[in-house]
Design goal:
Length: 367
C-alpha cells in the first residue's frame, strides 16, 4: 500500500515538474530556446523551428503529460511487479522447504517477516508430526518383533514337554498328567500371544496397560521356573531356587512372568552346559531384590551397558533361534520400570546375573 502511494506521488511530482517548470513556468524560456536550437541544428530555419516547437509542446501539452504519466506508470508497474515476483519466488522456495524434510530455516525478505515466522512454525509442526509418525511406525514394528520373540518361549516349553512324553511312554501317570497340563497352559499362552498380532494396530510398546493384582512373588517364580524344567534337562542344567515366601507384591503377573521367562531363556542360551542357574529373591528394605544368575562367558563392560537397548544382541553370529531378536531385555526393562522397579546386569569371569528390584506391598495395604 505504501509502495503504491509512493509511486502515485512520484508520477504526480514528475508531471507537475514537467508542465509547470519546463512548459509554463521558470524554465519555459530556457526550455523553448533549447528546443528551437535543437530543431535548427537539423536544418530548419528559426520560424519553422518555433512552429515545430509550438505544434509539439504548446498545442499537445495534454498528450505529452498523459504520455509521460503513462510511461512513468508502466515503469513503476514494472518495478512493483519485479519486487512482487521476487516475493513470489521466495514464497515458493519457502513452501518447498516446508514440504522438504531438511532442517533448513526458511528465510524471506524483511517485508515478509510475519509470513516467514508462520511458515517456519508450520514447518516445525510438520517435522514434529513426521517424527511422531515415524516413532509410531517403529513402535509397531518393534511390537511385531517383540511378539515374535516371545512366541518362542512357550513354544520351546511345549516342544520340550511333548518330547519328554514321547521319549518316556512308561512315565508315571502323575508326572505325565503334570507335563500334559503344563503343555496345555503353554499352548494357551502361545495362542494368546498370536492373538496379540491381530490387535497390533491398537497396541504398542509405549501403551502397555498393566492388569495389576496382589500376589506372592514365590508363587509366580515357581510357576515360571517349573515351566523351564524340561529346557534345563535338555541342556543338562541344574537350578537352585531361594525365594522368600513372604514377599507380597502388586503387579501384572502376565507381564512379570514374561520378564522372568526372558531372563531365564537368556540364562539358558548363554550359560555353560552342565552348570547351575540360581534364582533368588530377598527383601531389601521396602523392595525385593530378585537375582537370576548363571555361569557363562563374561560380558565386557561396553556390552553390559548396551544389552537393554532394542535389537542389541550379545553374539551377532548367533542365530535368532538361540539368541533372540535382541528385544527381550529391552522389553523386560520397560515392563519392570512400569512397575516402578529397576533392572541391571553384572558380569565377571565366574557369573553373569540380572538383578531386579520391585516394590514390596504389605498384606492388607491399599493399592
Amino acid at each position: 500500500m505504501i509502495q503504491t502511494l509512493g509511486i502515485g506521488l512520484l508520477i504526480g511530482a514528475f508531471t507537475y515538474a514537467f508542465v509547470f517548470i519546463f512548459l509554463d513556468s521558470m524554465l519555459h524560456d530556457t526550455f523553448a530556446r533549447g528546443m528551437v536550437d535543437f530543431f535548427e541544428h537539423f536544418g530548419f530555419n528559426n520560424d519553422d523551428a518555433i512552429l515545430i516547437y509550438r505544434k509539439i509542446f504548446t498545442y499537445n501539452k495534454t498528450i505529452i503529460v498523459m504520455s509521460g504519466s503513462f510511461v512513468m506508470l508502466l515503469f513503476s508497474f514494472y518495478l512493483g511487479m519485479s519486487r512482487f515476483t521476487t516475493y513470489l519466488r521466495q514464497i515458493e522456495s519457502g513452501v518447498q522447504l516446508v514440504l522438504d524434510e531438511s532442517m533448513d530455516t526458511i528465510k524471506l525478505s524483511p517485508e515478509l517477516n510475519p509470513l516467514e515466522d508462520k511458515m517456519n512454525e508450520i514447518k516445525g509442526t510438520l517435522m514434529e508430526q513426521r517424527r511422531q509418525t515415524a516413532e509410531s511406525e517403529q513402535r509397531k514394528n518393534d511390537l511385531i518383533v517383540y511378539l515374535a520373540h516371545d512366541l518362542k518361549t512357550p513354544l520351546t516349553s511345549v516342544i520340550a514337554y511333548l518330547s519328554l512324553l514321547d521319549e518316556a511312554p512308561d512315565m508315571p501317570e502323575e508326572q505325565r498328567a503334570k507335563y500334559i497340563g503344563i503343555s496345555v497352559e503353554k499352548a494357551k499362552r502361545l495362542g494368546k500371544l498370536i492373538n496379540e498380532f491381530f490387535e497390533i494396530t491398537r497396541y504398542n510398546l509405549q501403551d502397555i496397560k498393566l492388569d495389576e493384582k496382589d500376589f506372592y512373588l514365590y508363587v509366580l517364580l515357581e510357576q515360571v521356573i517349573d515351566s523351564f524344567t524340561p529346557v534345563f534337562q535338555t541342556k543338562g542344567l541344574d537350578y537352585k531356587v531361594d525365594v522368600d515366601d513372604e514377599v507380597f507384591i502388586s503387579g501384572d503377573t502376565d507381564r512379570l512372568a514374561r520378564v522372568f521367562e526372558n531372563l531365564l531363556r537368556n540364562a539358558v542360551s548363554y550359560c555353560y552346559p552342565n552348570t547351575t542357574i540360581y534364582v533368588t529373591a530377598k527383601k531389601a528394605g521396602n523392595m525385593v531384590e530378585i537375582r537370576i544368575k548363571n555361569q557363562g562367558k563374561e560380558i565386557p563392560d561396553y556390552k553390559i551397558n548396551k544389552i537393554f537397548e532394542k535389537f542389541y544382541r550379545l553374539d551377532e553370529a548367533r542365530s535368532t533361534e538361540t539368541g533372540g531378536a535382541g528385544l527381550g531385555l529391552a522389553v523386560s526393562k520397560e515392563i519392570i520400570e512400569l512397575h516402578k522397579g529397576t533392572i541391571r546386569a553384572e558380569s565377571n569371569a565366574e557369573f553373569t546375573q540380572f538383578i531386579i528390584t520391585l516394590p514390596i506391598k504389605k498384606e492388607g495395604e491399599e493399592g
